[in-house]
TrEMBL record:
InterPro entries in alphabetical order: NAD(P)_OxRdtase_dom_sf (IPR036812), NADP_OxRdtase_dom (IPR023210)
Pfam assignment, any one: Aldo_ket_red
Superkingdom of origin: Bacteria
Positions of region (Disordered): 45-65
Occurrences of domain NADP-dependent oxidoreductase (ranges): 1-45
SUPFAM superfamilies: NAD(P)-linked oxidoreductase (SSF51430)
Protein species of origin: Streptomyces gardneri
Lineage: Bacteria, Bacillati, Actinomycetota, Actinomycetes, Kitasatosporales
Name of the protein this chain belongs to: NADP-dependent oxidoreductase domain-containing protein
Length: 65
């Protein structure tokens, strides 16, 4: 759903999901065949942004190296 929403944002958007498994590549590619309605796009676009920490403090320090 997230990839389908991104693809619906315009031709200048190119999501680049990372994966190690062929099955996930196939799932990601299938997002191109999903057509979201205007109502679905409005609802998804109206969601609040993600909030909260994505990493612990120790993980964040490792990323800053």
């Amino acid at each position: 759903m997230a990839l389908a929403w991104l693809l619906a944002q315009g031709d200048d958007i190119a999501p680049i999901p990372g994966t190690k498994r062929v099955a996930r590549v196939e799932e990601n590619t299938a997002a191109d065949a999903v057509t979201l309605t205007a109502e679905q796009l409005d609802r998804l676009s109206g969601l609040p942004p993600a909030a909260g920490a994505t990493h612990t403090e120790a993980q964040a320090r490792m990323l800053e190296r």
